[in-house]
Amino acid sequence: MFIPRSLKVKRNVSDDDKSCVAKKLKPQGEKLSSEEDREIPNVALVGEETSAPSSGQSPELGSSPDGHFAAVCLGGPEQSAEDSCVPEEPIKSFAKTQRLAEPGEPVCVVCGRYGEYICDKTDADVCSLECKAKHLLQVTENEEKVKLQKAISDPESPSLDTFYAYKEHSFILSLLDDQVENLKLQLGISVQGQKVPRPIIDFEHCGFPEVLNCNLKKSGYEVPTPIQMQMIPIGLLGRDIVCSADTGSGKTAAFLLPVIIRALEKNGTPSALILTPTRELAIQIERQAKELMCGLPNMRTVLLVGGLPLPPQLYRLKQNVKVIIATPGRLLEIMKQSSVELSGIKIVVIDEADTMLKMGFQQQVLDILENTPLDRQTVLVSATIPASIERFASQLLHDPVRIIIGEKNLPCPNVRQIILWVEEPSKKKKLFEILNDEKLFKPPVLVFVDCKLGADLLSDAVHKITGLQSISMHSDKTQVERTRILQGLFQGEYEVVISTGVLGRGLDLINVRLVVNFDMPSSMDEYVHQVGRAGRLGHNGTAITFINNNTKKLFLDIVKRVKPTGSILPSQLLNSPYLHEQKRKEQQRVNQAQDTVVTGDNLMDIIKKHDKSHSQK
Fold first, then answer.
1. CA 213, 214, 220 angle in degrees (round to 5)?
2. Could you give the domains of the chain?
3. Which of 178, 294, 512, 544 is a good FRET partner for 569, with 20 to 30 A between their CA atoms?
4. pLDDT digit string, tens, across residues 385-417
């Protein structure tokens, strides 16, 4: 049976464009007869099942074995009449004729192949007419389930046609101030700012549309984490935010939900922009965003990252997308071509803000923000927010709310930290001992090194000596290779992954239980992020770090950040003369700072010192 014309896949313009005509494509080299070359006003497109045309049907309305019927249209309202109809590749009828998706490209919601088309009914990515028909059948079944759930759900939940405005739930309002403060204290929630809303206890307290509530449950979000409890209501009110929370605490969902709500508002241009430092993190965020957006009207995302072909990303931008997820370099490249419109952006999220606002990325981020509206909402998120970034954020944001979950800039408490003093020549031997230790070795193991060549050489050595399946990961790998390695890591294909810092931030490597810092990171902030790969989403993990005198600049920081977690530090570190010298210099700075502060107790001493120095001159 034929799929009705209403099920036809939407391309760049509406199916009702009168300038479009349908043509039957012939094999290459075969000439068309005058009868076959005529214009056909209507075409029945082949779906999952096909049948022979009826006796009263013209040959052109029958099915083609290869599905070579297509609406030939690229015209739009801004094009001239002579350009309104140009030949285009035919719409694919069957999934088997569609190619596999490249990393970062849209994926068919039914079969997982390249999602070349967008369904005009649901805005979902599909690869062919066959998968569109299957998708619409699934949607019909899901709609019936949603209607049934909605009939027995909270009657206060707004419909998709209603403008959303966050209001604190009656249960939250009924709590006493002492109860709220006690809750924050128990959960380690610290908030700085004026007129900050109370944290939610359940996602139902947000009053989200029922479809979004269902998506949250399908994605495994049963109860909000501490960062989600406080950050979501603040974000829904449109406030600027600076957020610092442990790695794996649920920060992504905490900013995605306000992003989705802002993007739901009717607007012809993109409404939300999410900036990330790495391609892998951008791909992960888009995947989570699509899970939460499923079934919401006109909600489309675009992934703009380097390492992938530019034309498909430009094509995707023309599909009335609402949320842009990008790395700064690729977005600036597209902005220079005037191929993206940022004037309608209502919310900007800068993930891994400490990296994004360092010298390497800072100017790129500022150039992007200059092209967004001044009244936008801006959210900065990271596990570590150094003081320099705090100062910069105060200039960038308007009346921001600062949220700190747990101890600021400290490693994740779910990760057991082991600091080992290992001299450079003994590092490989110690790593092999760990990989052969039945108690410590829990594959897959993530090993961090400081250079690309070191990653390749160490990966070869691990495989040769231990026989374990090992692979290296760094920025010189192509995006296809990097995506394949990540998939292999998730699926247990590799037992050991030797990586530079490209895997150190943001990624939910939930099956990683052991991290080894073969080379100590260049800063403690990077250390916090890297050890956090072993404690995602509340799971427990172990992080082993090798140190020696090559990392002497960080000795004092290691003691300050690791010792409070209860970890035992090596005697070589505690007795190091470099550590004692750093402590002495820090005490001098503290004393100097105290001398500059004038109080009633030290006022006379300051005057005497001033008079003494003046008389000596």
1. 95
2. 95-142 (3.30.60.220), 170-405 (3.40.50.300), 415-575 (3.40.50.300), 581-615 (no CATH)
3. 512
4. 777 777 777 778 888 999 988 766 566 677 888
